[in-house]
Amino acid sequence: MLRTLFIAVFLSLYILILGPPLLLYTLVSRHIDPLYWAGLKGVLFFVRAVGVRVRVEGREKIPEEVCLFVANHTSSADAPAVVGAIPRRIAVLLKESLFKWPIVGQAFTLAHFIPVNRKDRESAISSVEKAAEAMRAGQSFLIYPEGTRSPDGRLQEFKKGAVVLAIKAGVPVVPVLCSGAQRVMAKRSMVVHAGEILVEFLDPIDASKYSWEERDILNQRAHDAMAAGLPPDQRPLGFPGASEG
Q: Is the pLDDT of residue 1 over 90?
């Protein structure tokens, strides 16, 4: 619990001290990079300070062009690990409520993150359209295709929003595996444990080769590629190589 308290106190102070001037600078200059990287590097610093290590593999597989990163979601700890592992500024589709946080919400907006209301289908479709437009304009995105954190660390079924977005934008899908985060911070737990999180990039999938009618095929291909690359205890039950315990 001391690790959690340390992060909560010092990260809050970091945001309160650096957040307002960086927000003002971004509003005036329209240059988002200082705000984005200061926020990300600050979070990663405090994560490392409490004994959480992030190991990254497969960065060389990331295409140079705009792409859609899709990652599994097991814990609040995997977000900074995955975003920090991606060597470019990205935008993220996030649940709408996160944009209501003071300072942080304004930073998300300025960084062109897009809010998603998963309970409103029309609103969710509109969010995907906005993201596709941004991708066609040159912005890479990260999305969690499971839609929510896994309760047990195992990969869940994918919603179709991610592949719909990739097909609409005509960009490669880059599967991203995150393992170990559920042991660092379990779902619905505020306790942070020391440990290692592994982030691994898999071979990209060219979504431009798939039509709208083939979205289910692309969705299953991305899901199965990620399931096969995860440790046995994070593969879906019944998937080849999954542990039953």
A: no
CB 16 within 8 A of CB 102: no
Looking at residue 88, its pLDDT comes to 95
| DSSP three-state, residue 196 | strand
CA-nearest of 192, 200, 190 to 81 is: 200
**DSSP letters of 199-217?**
EEE---EEGGG--GGGHHH
Helices (H), the chain: 2-29, 33-49, 78-85, 104-110, 121-136, 161-169, 181-184, 215-229
Q: Are 53 and 184 in contact (CB under 8 A)?
A: no
Structure-block tokens of residue 44? 């990663």
What pLDDT is stored for residue 245 in this prediction? 63
Radius of gyration of the chain (CA): 18
Q: Which region, left, alpha or beta, applies to residue 8 given φ > 0 means left and ψ of -120 to 50 means alpha?
A: alpha
Contact residues for 219 (Cβ-Cβ < 8 A; gap 6+): 145, 158, 160, 162, 163
Q: Let me know the angle formed at the C-alpha of 83 by 81 and 87, rounded to the nearest 5 degrees.
A: 110
12-46 pLDDT tens trace: 999 999 999 999 999 999 899 999 999 999 999 99
Q: Residue 151 and residue 166: Cα distance in Å, rounded?
A: 27
Beta carbons of 69 and 90 less than 8 angstroms apart: yes
Q: End-to-end CA distance of the chain: give it in Å, rounded.
A: 27
Say what the pTM is: 0.93
Q: Is 72 left (phi over 0), alpha (psi -120 to 50) or beta?
A: beta
Alpha carbon of residue 63 to chain centroid: 17
